[in-house]
Amino acid sequence: MKKIIVPIDFSEYSEYALETAAILAKKNHAEILALHMLELSEAILTKGSDSQMESLFFMKLAEKRFNEFLDKAYLDNIKVTPIVKHFKVFSEVNEVAKENQADLVVMGSQGSSGIKEYFVGSNTEKVVRYSDIPVLVIKHNPILTEFETIVFASDFSDDAVSAYLKAKDMCNTLQANMNLVYVNLPGESFKSTAEMEGKVVTFLKKAEGNLESLSKVTYVSDYTVEQGISNFANLIGADLVAVATHGRKGIAHFFEGSISEDVANHSTLPVMTFKI
């Protein structure tokens, strides 16, 4: 991990993300790209000299506030590159990531009740939707961000192979132990033990060409995928939950009969998304 993007809106939640990124940057000798999106209308930017002076004033004001925001002791000895964009276009986060060959986006999320407000029609959801690289969503002040134990929940379908491999690479980077979980649901989605095991074996052979990770898979039964993942994560003392996204379709149907953003919305743990 060489470069970490942190979108900044000057809120306490973006500071949580910035501090988390600092911890990860120090551990991996990485650079932080602090990104602020200055919301200026196209009219202001394209009109006459008076409007251009107004836009210049707002840009200078934002840059001053930005520099003050980045004056944090925990950023000492970390290379921090501030980037200011003129428009609040969230696809630009992915463009900045591509231009700078970034490895991770870290964003803050409001509230202890989950990130529903952010994953449904909000800034973080939009970034996740467009991002080709993993997005780490932080909900609290980063008291501990070692991420030693990670839960990757999957339905072990062919679509999930790419997300699984990305998650595995990230776990290796973080020097974390990745636990795989398959949640078996009642009703039409129910599968027998033999069916679940057969699906996982086929998946791992396709993803890795071997069954070395088979011992890391746990099968749990619950009424919803969300409850199953949460209960399993609490049982093993997980530090982070990893889920997959379908890109510009948003957090799409990843599990049969469920929606994976429900997991992110109500998880009390940090959540990392990987694009399928």
From TrEMBL:
Pfam families: Usp
Matching InterPro entries: Rossmann-like_a/b/a_fold, Universal_stress_UspA, UspA
UniProt superkingdom: Bacteria
Span of domain UspA: 1-139, 147-274
Family (UniProt): Belongs to the universal stress protein A family.
Protein name: Nucleotide-binding universal stress protein, UspA family
Species per Swiss-Prot/TrEMBL record: Bizionia echini
Lineage: Bacteria, Pseudomonadati, Bacteroidota, Flavobacteriia, Flavobacteriales
